[in-house]
Amino acid sequence: MRKKIIAFFTGAIIVGVLAGGQASASAEAYKVQQGDSLWSISQKHGTSVQQLKSWNDLSSDLIFPNQQLHISADKAVNKENNIDDIYVVKSGDSLWKISQKFGVQVNELIAWNKLSSDLIHPGQKLAVKGNPVPVQTETVNTVSQQPAPEQKEAVAQQSAPKQTQAPAQQPAPEQAQAPAEKNESASPQGNEMTVTATAYTAYCNGCSGVTATGIDLRSNPGQKVIAVDPSVIPLGSKVHVEGYGTAIAGDTGGAIKGNKIDVFVPSKSEAMKFGVKTVKIKVLN
């Protein structure tokens, strides 16, 4: 009888150790199931598509059944970056609001979480503490280099004879303003290409209203978002679209392949009115 009791407890200990090992493994990795996508996995585990791609070194949204994915930042990464606190994004949050709440800077939040833009969504987990990011001091240096009042007066006195000798050569006010007007109307710099553009809404048949990167378009009808082919335009990029404005490449589509984009508009009537156009775009980052 004693031998049976000892054997029972030994078996229980072994089962407990194996169960603990499986729990530890499941806490760090997720096995991709048939029909899974990065977006559905991010929603299930309270993270974002961008973080999943970063933790797993993915260059695209393509995943395969039985693939093992990290669903949280490894402890080694947290230790390296000295990350102590995690904040779960709530509805109505912005990086600026979160930075004010925790007494940090927006650029620090972007650096700690490896974000490519200011875009965040409810349920996303953000590190709110880490290694400080140096603050630029160019404005301070510029102020300190300005000449003292006595130097300004001397410069004005030296330049006065030149102004009196040739007043007619000074540019008229309209001519002086011309360069500034030209700069304001100039289009942003970036990788330019010509694409075929169509439009879509958040209320089409079978649409959830949530993009491939987690943007809720029904809650943000004024958001400028375009669907792209990630092999041509990386998801998360800022793109200037002729006649539409600067948008986030935040969605994909089965028919969006190659040099094609789909611009988001609030209503079906606007989508129908938009039609099919050939437009120029510039990928800004």
The CATH homologous superfamily of the largest domain is termed: RlpA-like domain
- Biggest sheet, in brief? 6 strands, mixed, barrel
Distance between the termini: 73 Å
Number of strands: 10
User: Mean pLDDT, as a whole number?
Assistant: 74
- What is the chain-wise order of helices and strands? HEHHEHEHHEHHHEEEEEHE
- Morphology: globular
SS-based class? alpha+beta
**Can you tell me the CATH class of the largest domain?**
Mainly Beta
Strand order of the largest sheet: 5-9-6-8-7-10
- Rounded radius of gyration (Å): 28 Å
* DSSP helix fraction: 25-40%
- Count every helix, treating DSSP H or I runs of 4 or more residues as helices: 10
**Per DSSP, what share of the residues sits in E-state strands of 2 or more residues?**
15-25%
Poorly predicted ranges (pLDDT <50, ≥5 residues)? 12-27, 75-83, 132-145, 151-156, 159-164, 175-187
- What is the CATH topology descriptor of the largest domain? Barwin-like endoglucanases
In total, the number of domains comes to 3
Named at the architecture level, the CATH assignment of the largest domain is Beta Barrel
Descriptive overview:
- The chain is α+β, with helices and mostly antiparallel strands and 285 residues long.
- It has 3 domains: 50 residues, Membrane-bound Lytic Murein Transglycosylase D, Chain A (Roll); 57 residues, Membrane-bound Lytic Murein Transglycosylase D, Chain A (Roll), CATH 3.10.350.10; 93 residues, Barwin-like endoglucanases (Beta Barrel).
- The strands form 3 sheets. The protein has a 6-stranded mixed beta barrel. The protein has a two-stranded antiparallel ribbon with strand order 1-2. Strands 3-4 form a two-stranded antiparallel ribbon.
- A hairpin with a 3-residue loop joins strand 7 and strand 8.
- The longest helix is centred in the N-terminal third of the chain and has 27 residues.
- About 22% of the residues have low confidence.
- It holds the Pfam family 3D.
- Keywords: Signal.
